[in-house]
DNA sequence: ATGAAAGCGCTAACAT
DNA sequence: ATGTTAGCGCTTTCAT
């Protein structure tokens, strides 16, 4: 209900026979007028159904929206299903709450080029979470004359950033597997570009990936395995556009079908790894005896599954991003927050067995 | 970066020697001016670093914010941890996305009376999710001259609503347990009022609960059990302020400690029930042999645990709330959407065993 | 303690 | 196809 469009500050002032300033002060600077007058103003306001100063008009005048915009590269609803994104959101909302700021989720359908929603967002700044280098919504955000903080990707000069050292993080994993003795590996990765693609990703595609994070993780893996003599060109890298357990499962199936000799599947996310675990089970492969599977992120479900993975502080990332954006100081910018990661040795990685062992038992 | 505060539509128009209308049209009504002129406008805009029409000024003029506000009764970050709230959010975000609308999460700390965030929210309407009757933020929302849709609670005349039939839903559960033979029951419920309280809730407290949903569920349980001769006054109802698995656990412990003769614990949420399951395990009680435990909501973790519960379509609730708010039509209001629920018979409910059986085995 | 004047930056009739 | 005129509703110096 409440569909009238009635009293304004001006009409209220007129009714009261006072100036608009006085009415404004009644709401915003109680100490600037006598308690009696203030009470009279507020009472009359109630009587006339005046809802208080219009927030939009106020924002226009004060140049403050009281909200932070969040740009994701996915459908909004996706964010509520991906545990890592969720952790980020939780952290970000914590920071917003601390600052009394609202959090505006900006719809940015990755399938469309529509950036109107970015233009329309009445916010004091944007947090950009994990979008590709060439995302048009990002471009629209950067045109807005407000501060921007990027989380994870892309990394853009001159912009505040929060993230982790992806290369370092996944290198720990690579070294762990190398130490265990794995040389025949396969990789499952998330989407590398905005256009849908499901299947093997050539090294060229890997290098051209517009998703910075994936690109760097793959590059770091390549480097680590090349150092022990693995020909990266021969390492199957399977890409999936959708980030779901079932895409992980299908990707792993595809991988094991075409390259059954792999002894380990490295996944660039826990979600994909969880799917890979399913795929292994479906094929009757035991993990880690027959096959090693590793993830990335350290989500709860991964922990539950005993996944060997890399834990990153997703909640802290969100909080740090929010703080960076909301913190008054903007002196020696751009600023960067780099958070720590941690190798989690679960029960899904073990030394490889030889082909013979795998087929004929130990 | 991007911290200049430069060109406006007017300055751009001046620079170009055209009217502001023309510049405005270049952005909002491309068909209203020649392509060449439009290109000239846009090019000059880029050159001057004009970021396009200011969204706040536009909102003021058009009386459209392009965003929906969401009011929760909890800290924002809580919403990202409660599976039911999350489902609701997902549904709501789906509806917003469809309409190209943003979703503004309004910080509304339940501990404070601060409603400024509600006043400051530049939105075209509010969705209110499960807040108590006397929530000051809700009052602030209702003063705003914008449409409001309430989900679950409270139920306020004249306001659009979406929800379920709580009494009916939990009655199904009550009848199920009654049929199994349970007469000695205990109940775990969520907070009944805004002020923190943890422990037994008297019938008076139950009846005065400012959380509508809990009140109705308890009332329906009372009615159902009274019909089979149970003295509701004697039924222990344990309340918990925090909605977490561990509060469920402690509440169940408290219940079983003080009333070990209960054969069933009915919980008004799955989260609490999951905690009750833990408590039973800690005491060495087998579920359902020694103790029946039931939940409410139908969250994924409940399903995983085989919980006997009532499933409600949380995602649909969110979507319906969003649609109700965004749907152009506002004729024969108020409107109400009542969604269906479903009894899920899991493996945590069975006929009670007598006290003797329980102590000495079958 | 209260008021007058001057916009914040934009869009929407209504001309032309 | 482009310009003129009027605000949207508010806050903020600066006076008084």
UniProtKB/TrEMBL annotation, chains A, B:
| Domain HTH lacI-type, residue spans | 7-62
GO molecular function, one example?
DNA-binding transcription factor activity
Going by the UniProt record, its keywords in alphabetical order are: DNA-binding, Transcription, Transcription regulation
This protein's source sits in the domain of life called Bacteria
- Keyword Hydrolase attached: no
Which InterPro entries is this protein grouped with? HTH_LacI (IPR000843), LacI/GalR-like_sensor (IPR046335), Lambda_DNA-bd_dom_sf (IPR010982), Peripla_BP_I (IPR028082)
Q: What Pfam families does this protein map onto?
A: Peripla_BP_3
- Protein name, please? DNA-binding LacI/PurR family transcriptional regulator
The lineage, from the top, is: Bacteria, Bacillati, Actinomycetota, Actinomycetes, Actinopolysporales
